Structure prediction request, 285 residues.
Amino acid sequence: MHDLNADLHCHSTVSDGTLSPTQLAERAKANGVALWALTDHDEIAGQHEALAAARALQLDYLCGVEISVTFADQTVHVVGLGVDPDDAALRAGLAHTRGGRSRRARAIGDSLAAVGIVGAYEGAEALADSPDMVTRTHFGRWLVATGVCRDTHEVFRNYLTPGKPGYVEQQWAALREAVGWIRGAGGLAVIAHPARYKYSANEEWALFEEFKVHGGRGVEVLTASHTPADVVRYADTAREYGLLASRGSDFHAPGESRVELGTLPALPAGLTPVWSELQPRIRRA
Ligand code: AMP
Ligand code: MN
Ligand code: MN
Ligand code: MN
Prediction:
């Protein structure tokens, strides 16, 4: 159970990945994943395809989502695992969260145009599945494709982040709402990639405390953006707050993502994996 090859965080073309849910299922299977979840940003439109593909490949599956949240003036991602993709309140909450993306994307385009980079909105929109799902990743791919930046690392160092051209603040869902939608849909809420947030020690404490108060249950200990020191640190956080530990590559695209689907190491010893609490929610092949 502890060393199960679970990969519970990745993205398809439904959000900002470049592979379809079916292609991801095939890739997960080929890489030896034993339990998989597709977790597109603020959208569950890929869940039925992912589930059908997983079933055809005899791959155990958890329906998932990654919700954008604003907490203490910063963006936090909350992964929901084992959700019912047909739950009406979850669907409405996600639709509302996505709703502001189109206007924001135009504002990002305007902000880039102000520093002489023209056509970014149209370029990013053409790479996205729908105008409601234009993300900074799509802008980043366009900035690389047009030669403005050499790679995504350069993109997020010079653009699209606070204080840089192309950054537009966005009010996402409240933490209480996101956790509520996930729980209401039968799922388990997990704080995604905690080392990526730039919180003070007090703010981080408040994040985990409030998350628990609202019924949040897990934290990603293993994820592509965590260094070995981050893994140790958030393994401690999991024990300290009594949270379940999750593991997910956050895979977006071949050649772009640092960690290939299904290739993270095993969780550190002494942690309880999220999947130990998700057994009834697993869609068995
Ligand atoms: P958005 O939801 O539109 O703000 O876009 C967020 C997405 O941008 C994340 O899910 C990542 O895929 C991508 N992203 C954000 N920061 C970085 C970074 N420093 N390096 C690579 N990708 C990033
Ligand atoms: Mn993403
Ligand atoms: Mn994320
Ligand atoms: Mn993600």
